[in-house]
């Protein structure tokens, strides 16, 4: 069975600026797949090429095995949900949702609108205008308007970006549940690592127009390929050179996640199956469920996330200046490929910063 979406060595340039540089992806039918990366990394340009809003400079785009590279958006079996929802303010909810079938003069329009609104839990809202809805309700209307057209692939371009934290977290779970219910392919663009980890079956991490790593959320988080992925997907401690050699006996770079590290007394004996290093707590921040420690180990700061089982805010603050030994299981150390660190330039493709209006607006946001 062919993949729902295939990108084959797709590249896109805007003048001298390379926005996407040879990306190849296969996204399975019924999969929730996220394109994750910072602004200017090429993720939205990839989404726009799948939708047909941009034509690749080279490479091809296929939907269910059919090459659609040169086919206009309205002839592709996809729909897009944008961050700003793009609802018609003068129309009711029902009219917004039913706009597509109405334009195409399709049968059973009213019944399909009712089913679509029920699907997104907006029964009873059919006669309201968008201005009478909350942000989360407007997001649901945009989803219903896309789903009523029965696309085989739904593209979502940071649709939760304008919502507050609590509503965004609730909508993440609703989106994943809805995707399972309808069973169609969702391709989701985001710069928010939590969103990608929460909802995705698989995700691709973008940087400077290329995919740095692709896999399930647990694969990417637990086994980052390089320092960029380790630093962008969650928080991680990347160690190399003399520090790595001091800890592990080799200067080869590795990473360890803050939650894998324990804070012990300075005289603690480090077992043979654990790595350890002495340091001084430079900062302690109480964050409710856990306390974040920044520990100075000879000029390098290691971050630790310690679950709060008995401590309070005053306990955390009293730890500053305390000498400690940090320990973690040696198998929590993940070796890294050499590559650019988060925020460093990548010579494989020109940087996009300051490229001006030649790049689509969604990719030109700092």
Explain the overall architecture:
The chain is of the alpha+beta class. Among the domains are: 5-77 and 151-231, Rossmann fold; 241-335, Beta Barrel (OB fold (Dihydrolipoamide Acetyltransferase, E2P)). It contains 11 helices and 18 strands. The protein has helices at residues 43-51, 93-97, 99-103, 109-119, 135-147, 165-182, 193-199, 217-222, 227-232, 241-248, 313-317, and strands at residues 5-14, 17-27, 32-36, 58-63, 66-67, 78-81, 153-157, 185-190, 202-207, 210-215, 237-239, 254-256, 262-264, 274-286, 290-297, 300-307, 323-329, 334-335. The strands form 4 sheets. The chain has a 6-stranded mixed sheet with strand order 6-7-8-3-9-10, sandwiched between helices. A 5-stranded antiparallel sheet has the order 13-17-14-15-16. A 4-stranded antiparallel sheet has the order 2-1-4-5, with helices on one face. A hairpin with a 3-residue loop joins strand 14 (274-286) and strand 15 (290-297). Helix 4 (109-119) crosses helix 5. The two termini are 40 Å apart.
Question: Which labels suit this protein?
Answer:
366 residues; alpha+beta; Rossmann fold; OB fold (Dihydrolipoamide Acetyltransferase, E2P); six-stranded mixed sheet; five-stranded antiparallel sheet; 25% helix; globular
């Amino acid at each position: 069975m062919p993949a729902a979406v295939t990108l084959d060595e797709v590249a896109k340039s805007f003048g001298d600026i390379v926005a996407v540089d040879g990306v190849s992806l296969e996204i399975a039918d019924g999969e929730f797949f996220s394109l994750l990366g910072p602004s200017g990394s090429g993720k939205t340009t990839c989404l726009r090429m799948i939708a047909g809003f941009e034509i690749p400079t080279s490479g091809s785009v296929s939907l269910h095995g059919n090459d659609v590279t040169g086919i206009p958006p309205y002839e592709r079996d996809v729909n897009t949900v944008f961050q700003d929802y793009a609802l018609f303010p003068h129309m009711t909810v029902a009219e917004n949702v039913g706009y597509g079938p109405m334009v195409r003069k399709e049968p059973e329009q009213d019944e399909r609108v009712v089913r679509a609104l029920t699907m997104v839990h907006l029964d009873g809202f059919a006669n309201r205008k968008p201005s009478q809805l909350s942000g989360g309700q407007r997001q649901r209307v945009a989803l219903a308007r896309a789903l009523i057209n029965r696309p085989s692939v739904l593209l979502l371009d940071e649709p939760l970006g304008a919502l507050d934290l609590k509503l965004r977290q609730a909508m993440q779970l609703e989106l994943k549940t809805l995707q399972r219910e309808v069973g169609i392919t969702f391709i989701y663009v985001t710069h928010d690592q939590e969103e990608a980890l929460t909802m995705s079956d698989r995700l691709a991490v973008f940087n400077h127009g290329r995919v740095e790593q692709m896999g399930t959320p647990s694969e990417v988080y637990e086994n980052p390929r390089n320092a960029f992925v380790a630093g962008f997907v969650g928080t991680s401690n990347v160690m190399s050179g003399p520090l790595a050699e001091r800890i592990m006996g080799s200067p080869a770079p590795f990473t360890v996640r803050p939650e894998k590290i324990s804070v012990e007394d300075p005289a603690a004996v480090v077992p043979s199956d654990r790595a350890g290093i002495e340091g001084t707590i430079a900062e302690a921040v109480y964050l409710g469920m856990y306390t974040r420690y920044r520990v100075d180990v000879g000029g390098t700061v290691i971050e630790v996330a310690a679950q709060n089982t008995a401590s309070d805010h005053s306990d955390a603050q009293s730890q500053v200046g305390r000498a400690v030994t940090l320990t973690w299981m040696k198998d929590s150390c993940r070796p890294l490929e050499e590559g650019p660190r988060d925020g460093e330039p990548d010579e494989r493709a020109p940087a996009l910063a300051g490229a001006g209006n030649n790049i689509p607006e969604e990719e030109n946001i700092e």
